[in-house]
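Example 3.2
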Amino acid sequence: MPWTRRHLLTIEQLSREEIEQIHATAAAFKRILGRSVKKVPALRGKTIVNLFLEPSTRTRMAFDMAAKRLSADVIAVEGSSSSTTKGETLRDTAQNIQALQADMIVIRHAAAGSPLYLSRILDIPVINAGDGAHEHPTQGLLDTFTMLEHLGSLQGRKVVILGDILFSRVARSNIHALTKLGANVTLVGPATLVPHWFTGMGVNVSYDLRSALADAEVVMLLRIQHERQTSSHFPSLGEYTSMFGLNKTRAGWLHPKAIIMHPGPINRGVEIDSELADGDRSVILEQVTNGIAVRMAVLYLCSGGQPETVAAGSGQ
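Structure, written as tokens:
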């Protein structure tokens, strides 16, 4: 079916078929990125504004790289250099960007729902690069893309997400993507960070690390997000690590061919030991690489491109 969405705001609103379309387009772009000439003219003449009003390294750089690989012109606006520091509203900032004839806005903002808000007042595509603790759709897409490269299919596969689920937009986007793709998802961590109401999203909730990790084919670690917590949700980092940190012994409870993932930034020695983060089972750097191809796919499709065009090679 043709791609019809102008915005990428959440994974929750995507169908399984749309997720698969993005993955297929990303796979085609990844093949192009493996060539000596990695740039394609798909978005030549377009201007993309990366409006990052919350700190970011990997996501901002990946969107910047993706846009440039598509031959778009890129303007980066960060919170510290924007007029929002002078009291300008998000609405005025975004409308000024549109008035400057930008063709697309990629936004990261601390307020949940800010990309949806902009999509309703602007006439150009809006891409959500993370909104508060709500969603981070391109991260969920690149994570599932990476899992599919290793597992072939997610139908019936056991995937464990371990850590700060309550405050994690990455967890929410992954839950939506994984359940739509047929995975069996288990959330595990302290009860204060993994409330039981998450079962309403079609996943399992566990507070027993050993049984949760048993035979899991994927484990995704999440960092403790102090910046979004209003109070301490566990006694100390040391106690969190002693109970829920992934070390060599606990990794032995996983499926023998399980992969270890982390969206970054990693707090080494807290949620994961360095030996595992850098080990053979870790696909953390693959996630970063795949983030470029997936974001190329999203920018391309939301600007009006079609999956079959890239697959056929005419997007070059």
